[in-house]
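Quick one: structure tokens for this chain, please?
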Amino acid sequence: MPITIDPNVIYVLLLLSLWASVTAAFMPGTGIVEVLAGLGMVASVVVLAMMPTNWLSVIALIVGGLGFFIIPFINPNIARFSSIGGIALQMVGGLTLFSQGGVSIALILVVTAISLAYYRFGLLNMLETQRAKAALIDDEGFIGAIGTVQRALDPVGVVRVHGESWTARSDRRLEPGETVIVRDVEGLTLIVEGEKHKREALESIEEAN
């Protein structure tokens, strides 16, 4: 049975969850942003399922948001078109989100303005940080560097190396606080090995000999 919840609240919750998901993709950290994004998306879908929702509009909101925030980083040549299209889909999705009682036009305009500001002053700065990290990898020898696990690797997590947080991958689970050694680099992802596991392997080889 449909329930009555302020459409404006659901609209904002859905978009905030989407923004948090995009932020997590550009800024690896403790996992808090990822968890909040996941919880927000689940809560949004659950509530939308109990309301007279236009699901094509939900898809338009998601596609528009992702197109606006992510595509410009993937292909700068179509940044202008993807940004305009993304904003348009986000606005249309908000206006037609519910079959009864739509989202406030004023709120949609405010959220659109915030989206533009967040893209310009938030995500673009994150992109510059990622590019700086890529240059850092090229300039400094990361192979053999020592770091510490910030977010558990299972197999992907976050480690701190050279004073920066990096997305990392390991062939076995590593817990926060464990010391790691960088074995390889794939793009902006560090391939690491637990120092303890390496030491145990060396000891086993020595005992075998």
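The longest strand covers residues 179-186.
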